[in-house]
Amino acid sequence: MRKRGRTSSAELELAALQIPRIEQRPDADYSLTDEEAEVWRAVVDSLPASWIVAGALPVLSAYCRQVVSMRRLGQLVHQAAHEANPYDLDGHLRLIREHSKAAQVLKSLATSLRIAPQSTMRPETGGRQLRSHTEGPKPWE
């Protein structure tokens, strides 16, 4: 409920001082490549401005490097499966193992940064959302 009467000069002065502060989003680390910096910008722009604190910046840098590394490993797995002549089973399995290890590291980094869906959502909320999307006839009906 508002006060009756005119607004005093002191209240006007206080209102002018309470201008919302616009927070800067952190710039990408200079040690990142262009591709890694692109991942950085995509992650930072998808989160609220105050989400990434200064202590988490090295973790975010490692996350960006890991994303690019995963892309390259995925390309190598695809090449090993489709373009190798003759097919090298040992090399292909080695690449798949490396890709799996990198995926675990990426998952750990995303969870520690709280950018993975399971780190910000309670399990029962996720189940409720899943049930709301699966309403209607079942695929086998």
Relevant terms:
141 residues, mainly alpha
Reconstruct the topology from this structure.
Blueprint: H1 9-17, H2 34-45, H3 57-82, H4 89-113, H5 117-120, H6 123-133
Please identify the oligomeric state: single chain
For the termini, the CA-CA separation is: 57 Å
Using the alpha-carbon principal axes, give the shape.
flat
Q: What is the H/E order? A: HHHHHH
User: How many β-strand stretches?
Assistant: 0
Number of helices: 6
What is the arithmetic mean of pLDDT? 81
Strand content: under 5%
SS content category: mainly alpha
**Major sheet: size, sense and barrel closure?**
none
- Alpha-carbon Rg, integer: 24 Å
Helix amount = 55-70%
Low-confidence stretches: none
Summarize the structure.
This protein is 62% helix and 0% strand. It is built from six helices and no strands.
Write a structural description.
This protein is mainly α and 141 residues long. Helices cover 62% and strands 0% of the residues. It has 6 helices and no strands. It has helices spanning 9-17, 34-45, 57-82, 89-113, 117-120, 123-133. The longest helix has 26 residues, at 57-82. The mean pLDDT is 81.
